[in-house]
Amino acid sequence: MSPRARATLPTAFLVLAVAVTSLAWRSRAVSFAVLTPRPAQKAAQEAQEAVDFSQMTGPGILHEMIGEYALPKPVVLSPHGQLRVQEDLGVNVTVVGDEAYIVSPQHWSNYRPLGLVEETYLRDMEGETVSHEENPGIRVEPDFVSEAEEDHIMAELIELASTFGYDFAAEEEAASSASWRMTGRDEKKTDLPLAPWGWGKDFHESKLPSGLRSVVEKLQSLPGYPLGPIRDVTVNIRSSDDYQMVPHVDPLLDGPNSFVLSLLSSAVVTFSPIATLRTEIERANDDEQYAQHSYTDDDIDCLVPRRAIYHFAGNARYLWTHAVRPSVSAGDGTDGTFERWGTWDKVLRREKNRAAIIFTFADPM
Ligand SMILES: O=C(O)CCC(=O)C(=O)O
C-alpha cells in the first residue's frame, strides 16, 4: 500500500497532520450482543415497577443498551422530589411521571454564539463544515492554556498520580500503553484512595492542585458560559498512541456542562447521535468498521488542538455520545498512527502522550 498524495490542512494543523491513501486497519476482536432499544417511557415505567424506592439514596438512572454500550438516559427516578433531584444532578428537571424526571438543561442560546472557531474545527463525515444549525452544542476554545501552564499542570498531575492514579487501559490495548486515571468520583474500580477534590455536591475546589484550580477559575469567568458549581474533575493520561474511547455519555450525575482540556497532543473526538447509533448497532460496535467508517454517517468530528478546551452541553451532552476512534497505521511502514478528521483526506498523526482532563459544571440555578 502506498501513501496518498499529501493534502494540505489549515495552516495551524500543518505540523500535526499528514494525509495518506491506504491504511492498514489494526484489528481487535470486539464481541457485541444486539439488544433492541426500548422507548424511554416504556423503560421508565418498567424500571419504576422494579425499583424498591425505600432502598434508594440517590436518583435511579436508566440505561439504554446499544450493543455493548450502556448509555444513561436523561431520565431519572427518585422518591425525593424535584428540588432534591435538581440538587443531585446539578441541572433543572421536569416531572414526566410519578417520581420520574427528565433533565432540562439551560437553553442553548444562553451560551456564546457559535462562530468561526466551530466552523474551523468541526467536520461531518463528508469532510464538510458543520453548520450552526447542525451543531448539537459543541464549542471549542483554542489556546486555553499556555505552554507554561501545560507544563505546570502536567508536573502536578504526575506527582499526584503516584497516590491517586489507577491504570485504566482496556484489556485489548497494547501492554505498553501506560494509562491512568484520577477522579474524585467513586467508580468502584480501584482500592486506591479517590482524588481529594471529591465529586458532585461534595466537590472541594480548594483541594485541586493549583494548575487545575486556575483552569476552573478561568472557566468560571469565561464569557458565554453560564455555569453553576464545579461537580467533577477527571484526569485521563495515555502514554501510547494505541487507544480508543468507545461512544459514551458521561455519567448523568456529573452535571450538564462538560469541558475537556487536551494536553500534550491534539485529538479528534467523535460525536454520534444516539438516534442514529440505534440504527447502526452492528457497525457502531465493530472496531474494524468504525475505525474505517466511523460509528454512523451522521457523526461529527471535533478536531481539538493541543492546549484547547472543548465544551459540550444540551443535546451534545445528553442525546449524542462522544468517543475517540482507534488510530490506524499507514500500510507502507510510515511511522506513527493516524486518525481521520471527517474523512481520510485529512488525518491527524497521533502523539504518544495525551492528557484529557474533564471538568463538569452544574447549570446556574
Ligand atoms: O479524550 C477526550 O477528549 C474525551 C474524554 C472522555 O470522554 C472521558 O474521559 O469520558
Characterization of this structure:
The chain is of the alpha+beta class. The chain has two domains: 11-31 and 111-361, Alpha-ketoglutarate-dependent dioxygenase AlkB-like (Jelly Rolls), CATH 2.60.120; 40-103, no CATH class. It is 21% helix and 29% strand. The chain is built from nine helices and 20 strands. The strands form four sheets. A seven-stranded antiparallel sheet has the order 7-15-12-20-10-9-8. The longest helix is centred in the middle third of the chain and has 18 residues, at 147-164. It is globular and about 60 Å long.
Topology:
Layout (H helix, E strand, L loop, with lengths): L22 E2 L15 H11 L9 E7 L2 E9 L4 H8 L3 E5 L2 E4 L12 H6 E3 L13 E4 L5 H18 L1 E2 L11 E5 L26 H11 L9 E9 L6 E4 L8 E7 L3 E7 H6 L1 H4 L2 H7 L6 E5 L4 E4 L2 H4 L1 E5 L3 E3 L6 E5 L1 E7 L4 E8 L4
Antiparallel strand pairs: 1-17, 2-3, 3-5, 4-5, 6-14, 7-15, 8-9, 9-10, 10-20, 11-16, 12-15, 12-20, 13-14, 13-16, 17-18, 18-19
The structure holds 2-oxoglutaric acid.
Organism: Cladocopium goreaui
Protein name: Fe2OG dioxygenase domain-containing protein
InterPro entries: AlkB-like_sf, ALKBH4
Question: Counting H and I runs of at least 4 residues, what is the number of helices?
Answer: 9
As for the CATH topology of the largest domain, it is Jelly Rolls
Briefly, what CATH class of the largest domain? Mainly Beta
* SSE series: EHEEHEEHEEHEEHEEEEHHHEEHEEEEE
Strand content: 25-35%
Strand order of the largest sheet: 7-15-12-20-10-9-8
